[in-house]
Design brief:
By secondary structure, the chain is mainly beta. The chain contains four helices and nine strands. It has a four-stranded antiparallel beta sheet with strand order 1-2-3-4. A hairpin with a 3-residue loop joins strand 7 and strand 8. The longest helix has 8 residues.
Length: 181
């Protein structure tokens, strides 16, 4: 798009080189100048007039952008950044798993720990920790390995949407019956 700049930034607002994961920021004529009568929200979301999208991604060497996750979904476990989407993508590669939702829950020692909710395929069975057949799961650092998993008949979600981790985030670790369908 003409007169548009898209960059990848670190947490301090510094531009990152290609291949590094950070927040996607953009500026140009299509970006709103700010929130109506909300200078605090404007400064937080549009510092210096550049829109911080809240999306996390990276740019490759050819200038193509790739989305990794939403910044607010990031789990910080023992000081390490864990992207729920990466864990979910690995879990659904297991032949018994139909859907997965990963959230961070408070942990007094690590800050947050990774929780996974999975919905199994009809007739399939799996046990927590029993998905070690996945080579990607075996290579996870301990901070990315789900500390707890819970099997659900199916994940509650809006029509045509993927399993919604947000519906679990409000009630971990105990599940409300409304999460079951």
């Amino acid at each position: 798009m003409f007169n548009t700049v898209v960059r990848i930034l670190d947490d301090e607002g510094n531009q990152l080189p290609p291949g590094e994961v950070g927040e996607i920021a953009t500026s140009g004529p299509m970006v709103v100048p700010g929130y109506w009568n909300r200078p605090d929200a404007t400064e937080r979301t549009l510092p210096g007039g550049e829109l911080r999208t809240g999306d996390v991604g990276f740019m490759d060497g050819d200038g193509w952008f790739y989305l990794v996750d939403r910044k607010k979904d990031m789990i910080v476990a023992a000081g390490y950044k864990v992207w729920p989407r990466e864990v979910e993508d690995t879990l659904v590669r297991h032949p018994a798993v139909r859907e997965a939702a990963v959230i961070g829950v408070p942990d007094p020692y690590r800050g947050e720990t990774v929780w996974a909710y999975v919905s199994l395929r009809p007739g399939a069975a799996a046990t927590p920790g029993g998905n070690s057949s996945s080579s990607a799961a075996r290579s996870w650092p301990p901070t990315s390995t789900p500390g707890t998993s819970r099997s659900l008949p199916t994940c509650r979600r809006p029509p045509r949407a993927s399993c919604c981790a947000a519906s679990f985030a409000s009630a971990p670790p105990a599940l409300d019956r409304a999460l079951y369908r």
